[in-house]
Amino acid sequence: MIEVKNLRKVFRIHQKPPGLLASIRSLFHRQYVDKVAVAGADFSVGEGEIVGMIGANGAGKTTLVKMLSGIVHPTSGEARVLGYNPWEKHNDLRRQISLIMGQKAQLWWDLPGADCFELLREIYQIPRPEYESNLKRLTEMLQVEDELNTQIRRLSLGERMKMELIAALLHSPRVVYLDEPTIGLDITTQKAVRDFLLSYRQDHAPAMILTSHYMEDIERLCERIIIIREGELVYDGNLQRVIHEYAPYKQLTVHLNRAETAAVDKDYLDRIGEVMEEQAGTIVLRIPRNQVTSAAAEILRKFSVQDLSIADPEISEIIELIMGGKEKPQT
Amino acid sequence: MIRYLRLYRQFLSFSFSKSLEYRLDFWFRIIMDCIFYVVEIAFFMVIYQHTEILGEWNFDQTLVFVCGFLLVDAIHMTVFSNNLWWLPIYVNKGDLDYYLVRPVSSLFFLSLRDFAANSFLNLVIASGLLGWSLMRYPEPIPTTNLLWYLFLLLNGALLHYTLQMFFLIPVIWLHSNRGLTNAFFSTTKLGERPDKIYPKWTRRILLFVFPLLLMAAIPARVLFEGPSLELVALTLGISAVFFLLMVSFWNFALRHYSSASS
Fold this sequence. Notes:
By secondary structure, chain A is an alpha/beta fold. In chain A, 38% of the residues lie in helices and 29% in strands. Chain A folds into 2 domains: 2-243, P-loop containing nucleotide triphosphate hydrolases (Rossmann fold, 3-Layer(aba) Sandwich), CATH 3.40.50.300; 248-311, YebC, transcriptional regulation domain (Alpha-Beta Plaits), CATH 3.30.70.980. Chain B is globular, with a radius of gyration of 19 Å.
């Protein structure tokens, strides 16, 4: 449903040194730098797939989403969304896509939700029966039936975001771009939004691209992630696989009684693995995957262990490492 | 076309319910615009105390012309001005994004979404002023002339919008367009004067290059002299060319729209 080939966007940015003199000078002579926002992206997204796009601020996620929704023209490269070039702004395409930006409101501030939706019905030419049934289902799912006649500016942030979601999905889009849809929301509303998106996916199987800084959004909603670092796609694949590919180690946590902890030889631990933490009877070791079983067996043999657990590192930890520049280890 | 008319009906309905909420602003706008009307008419009254003819027109003709211009201005203020005022803000804050993903013309949506219902009464007042100036006009006015005149005034309002858009669209590159907007409103004053007061070349520029005289002065000439093919074709032809150029300019500018970072 979405095909992207070597998509690239370069912004030309004016650079102004600080100070009044520099401001005056910049009236006559300006210095520009080229900022590569997206450096040749290649990927595709299929029906019913939710792809999480992860990257630090300014990595190029939003620019990519804006190019795919036809807002920003690329510097070079190609993209097809439902078979259309998004920059040609075909109404047939625009009727089938939707964009939700957590930091920007699309609804009209002074109008109640019901009026905004009525206007969107006209814009998207949604047949009346379909509109009524979609609106009923969406408001029930998000539990905002009682807020439909309240002006948008009088709603709480969470209620507003729910209204934004309804507005974006009223016309049953086949492609949905979600740019930080849970930003600023409390935990309960974040969960409600996630549950709603999953349920929407189950019913309509749209292709979705989700950008978020909340790992919980990504972990709950996406099986596949794309990691962007300074405009470059550095990982595109299964969310769980990222651990195996970028973290060839596991974390071994051992709980000993306090007396025994004091007797543990530091050099011995260093020989088994990398000591991450050692305090109050708890030792956390980072051990290569292929050695973790033997290391655990050895520890169990050597010490009087109260508890022992083996776990993968947190996904957020791995993603943070990749965003920070960690390369895939050689195997 | 019918779809766009239905959409516009929705815009009207929402704009009315929205603007009636701000009661003080509602009355304030009416008072401000009435002051503007009085000043415009008084300006020419003062001039005609010193001369009988200005640019081939006597006071009665000039009064009709001025009231015609006031109607063009009132239509512009009611239909377009709120929307155009917001455009630079939308561009700089990135709010334009949502208008670009809708399956309707972005230009239509951005230009007509907000009908200034609180200026609507001004539209009624300006129409009344024009009616009054026509009633007191001493010569008989043929119905054909009158119908063409009213039609060309509507065209004048559309032309006013078109010309302002030429000054607004560069905001996509410049990000600040206060200078251009001020320049537009200063130069628009040239269209508030009878066309024949200008020297030959200035008049040509104001007809073909920056056609401010087509907003109200040439329609007034059609009213007084009859709808000659030359005047009507000139007005409608140039207006159409400028409108098409503006649409192309808008589409070209959108290719360079960089949105705002989130």
